[in-house]
Amino acid sequence: MKILYLSDTDLDQSSGVAKKILMQANQWKRLGHHVEILSWDSLSWFSLDGNRLTNSKIFIKRRGWKVLPHLYLSTLKIMKELENKTFDVIYMRYRLYSPFFSEIKKYGKVIVEINTNDKEEFKKSFLLQFYNSLSRNFFLRDTDGLVSVSNELQEIFSIHKKPTTVIANGIDVKQYEFFEQTNNTKPNLIFIGSPNQRWHGIEKIEYLATKIPEFNFHIIGTKKENKENLRYYGYLNDSEARKIVAKMDVGISTLSLYLKNMQEASPLKSRQYLAHGLPIIYAYEDTDITQKYEFCLKLPNTPNNIASNIDKLKAFVYKVFQNKIYRSEARRFAKTHLDTSIKEQKRLKFFEKVCNES
Fold this sequence. Notes:
- The protein contains 11 helices and 15 strands.
- By secondary structure, it is of the alpha/beta class.
- Strands 3-2-1-4-5-6-7 form a 7-stranded mixed sheet. Strands 10-9-8-11-13-15 form a 6-stranded parallel sheet, with helices on both faces. A two-stranded parallel sheet has the order 12-14.
- Helix 6 links the parallel strand 8 (188-192) and strand 9.
- The longest helix is centred in the last third of the chain and has 17 residues, at 340-356.
- It is globular and about 65 Å long.
């Protein structure tokens, strides 16, 4: 197939979205498909290495209220970029509607990835929330298929009667180093997150550090003053983060997803932990973890999930600490359930199904 990825961000950045897009596109190429990437943000073409091939900067950046004029202008410019091109599939993440979006359909089947509940996502801006509520049905009308990252989101969007599949977030497992056992003398727990993402639940990890002084806690992505058993690393690039995570004993994933009015997720951080062989602690329905595993501790998706389960959490950590079997099982699970080779084969089969439908 010939696939165009309409990226909602420039790819010469280190954002999680950019990394995921490049991971997907490269997997499609490895599976024998032709892939091109065009950014909505700057109207630049990118290579599958994330390098900028053209530099056609749009003069209105999509920040604040300027999102709306960007929507109008960028779609017109994209159509100009696509002149004399055709694709089997045009793949993109959900975005705000542009009045000229329907014209893009003539260049290929449009398949949209649903990563979040848009009605909740745009609540932070009254203007964007209002615009999205008025226009989202027009946007979804012009799509040919939807790929949802969770069953919960698939159900929310089922009203639109589009061909849909559920594919949770994946990871390229072979990129993550695996150790059967660490040399730690006491349990070390790691969290990867970003500042100002309240649903991550960083304050709960800080609380844990005060309640369980016999464990060491590490937080990547936030910078604060270190405590005796709590270390903050601030922002780290991929390579730096992997070196640290691989030597940890337990990974902590999202703890306060209820703040987004969501129950189900597939955070990339949890996939990275498992790829490294770390048992995980999480507090949501994971799309890929459909049964009980000894290397997983699932807590309730509630405000008091940590305070009410400290003894349970301690028992889990001591159970998996320095246990080669659980680390090996976590790594095996990542290979057989979470690897991009598995995820992207399923996505490509869905592309073929949509293309074959009239």
